[in-house]
Amino acid sequence: MSKRVLTTESGAPVADNQNSATAGVGGPILLQDQHLLEKLARFNRERIPERVVHARGSGAYGYFEVTDDVTAYTKADFLGEVGKKTELFIRFSTVADSLGGADAVRDPRGFAVKFYTEEGNYDLVGNNTPVFFIKDPIKFPDFIHSQKRDPFTGKQEADNVWDFWAHAPEATHQVTWLMGDRGIPASYRHMNGYGSHTYQWTNEAGEAFFVKYHFKTNQGIRSLSAEQAAEVVGSDANSHQTDLLQSIERGVNPSWTLYVQVMPAAEAAEYRFNPFDLTKVWPHSDYPLQRVGRMVLDRNPDNVFAEVEQAAFSPNNFVPGIGPSPDKMLQGRLFAYADAHRYRLGVNHTQLPVNAPKATEADNYGRDGYMATRNGSRHDKNYEPNSYQGPAQTDTPLSAPLAIHGWTGTHAAPLHTKDDDFFQAGELYRLMSEDEKNRLVANIAGGLSQVSREDLIEKNIAHFAAADADYGKRVEEAVRALRD
Ligand code: HEM
User: Where is the Catalase core domain (predicted)?
Assistant: First the structure.
């Protein structure tokens, strides 16, 4: 076997990778040592901006296989035939901490899937929670500021966390979820994933449906108590990464079964909950789960930076048969992600192998910019329309149009008959066993008792009491016991 030769970036052989070139033995370094200059300069540029949220993550490749016929609801080709398989990449993540944080913390988990379909990449960028803290994207930067490190102390501050929630009664449902038993998953393999938002499916006949995605883990749900998590963080800050990596390396391939809840579009207006409010679920008794297929993860990336750090998921990457709903949060996200990618990775991030389509090719008139590798040939025109057989539009919308009415303006999301900020949080609480309630209350009190201002504590307790009087009373007693 021929010995591999170490080269510079331009491919020239490197004579010495142990000693830099100097003017005489023991003299100063020479500017002509190209290998040294290049090595130091490249090293300085190894980091790119971390994701503004979901900075810590782990990725894996796998496939999706259709097990049930859903063609009555969507014309999406990758869901079009039982047995059809589509390659995919998933990135799991925590949300609030920076790259240097730990995995086993109380925080939602990201669940971002990129399906490399023959009709282009479909990104489903969800979480392990069916709901979210807020329902208008205008609040997102404030929400995240309150949960991440404080600009003065450089630490996460209980005052900021609970001050935001004191002003966001609509967060009570998600806070109850987060402080409950599923708030700290044991690993990425042992949690469910949800699209969380309502999306729109359109079938071949042009009929529209609203859907919610549920990925149920086939490994079973496993979570950590606050005490167990503290121990895990102390022994392996990368516990989720270790678990996912080792499991797939051993050939123990994790899988999830995908279900959807399907609502005919005509039912949306009269449903008892606003179906486009991300702080609400659709009870399964109203819209049962229907199985679609299974997702299997069977390959680890070869390089975490190239394939996980540089992965870019955008809720705006749809394929024919799938589109957005009017959920305001989703609408905000349709802008935010690709904008983040252009800043974090550059305008040509879609040409990176992990992000580029795999089962089809991108073919358009976008050109140039930093790091362009797919820039057309001498025969390709860079404008359209043209007389040279360049790619042309299909005139077929990806999904059905959404009806709109009313006036422009800054409007709160409309309330349906059963909508308020607390009912579903109360339902979740009342579903819990006595032990679960005790742990939930202890987790909330552990955080809330750290808050320095009484008025913020009272406002938060009022939200739990509005969800369920017993819930509020227990939180209040537990907080008082810790503070007295
Ligand atoms: C209006 C509300 C939201 C805004 C403006 C927002 C914005 C962002 C931004 C800018 C990123 C970083 C993207 C990147 O650098 O690649 C991100 C990451 C992420 N967000 Fe959101 N987000 C919102 C709500 C949500 C919700 C509701 C979910 C789940 C249902 C979610 C799930 C994720 C996930 C999973 C990632 C990480 C994606 C990856 O692994 O690369 N976000 N978000």
Answer: 7-392
Question: Which residue's CA is the closest to the ligand 1 atom numbered 30?
Answer: 126
- State which of 318, 351, 384 marks the end of a domain: 351
**What is the count of structural domains for the chain?**
3
CA of 337 to the centre of ligand 1 (A): 7
Q: What is the rounded CA–CA span in Å between residue 83 and residue 413?
A: 40
Assess whether 218 and 127 both reside in one domain: yes
pTM: 0.97
Is the CB of 139 inside a 6 Å radius of any atom of ligand 1? no
Average pLDDT over residues 39-48: 97
The backbone torsions φ and ψ at residue 122, rounded to the nearest 5 degrees and listed phi first, read: -110, 120
pLDDT digits (tens, 9 = 90+) for 119-136: 999 999 999 999 999 999
**Mutation pick for ligand 1 pocket among 125, 138, 192, 345 (CB with most ligand atoms within 8 Å):** 125
Boundaries of domain holding 471: 423-483
248 and 333 co-located in one domain: yes
Domain check: are 31 and 88 in the same one? Answer: no
Print the SS3 string covering the chain: CCCCCCECCCCCECCCCCCCCECCCCCCECCCCHHHHHHHHHHHCCCCCCCCCCCCEEEEEEEEEECCCCCCCCCCHHHCCCCCEEEEEEEEEECCCCCCCCCCCCCCEEEEEEEEECCEEEEEEEECCCCCCCCCHHHHHHHHHHHCCCCCCCCCCHHHHHHHHHCCHHHHHHHHHHHCHHHCECCHHHCCEECCCCEEEECCCCCEEEEEEEEEECCCCCECCHHHHHHHHHHCCCHHHHHHHHHHHCCCCCEEEEEEEEEEHHHCCCCCCCCCCCCCCCCCCCCCCEEEEEEEEEECCCCHHHHHHCCCCCCCCCCCCEEECCCHHHHHHHHHHHHHHHHHCCCCHHHCCCCCCCCCCCCCCCCCCCCCCCCCCCCCCCCCCCCCCCCCCCCCCCCCCCCCCCCCCCCCCCCCCCCCCCHHHHHHHHHCCHHHHHHHHHHHHHHHCCCCCHHHHHHHHHHHHHHCHHHHHHHHHHHHHHHC
Angle at 27 between CA 25 and CA 28, to 5 degrees: 140
How does pLDDT run across 249-286, given as a tens digit for each residue?
Answer: 999 999 999 999 999 999 999 999 999 999 999 999 99
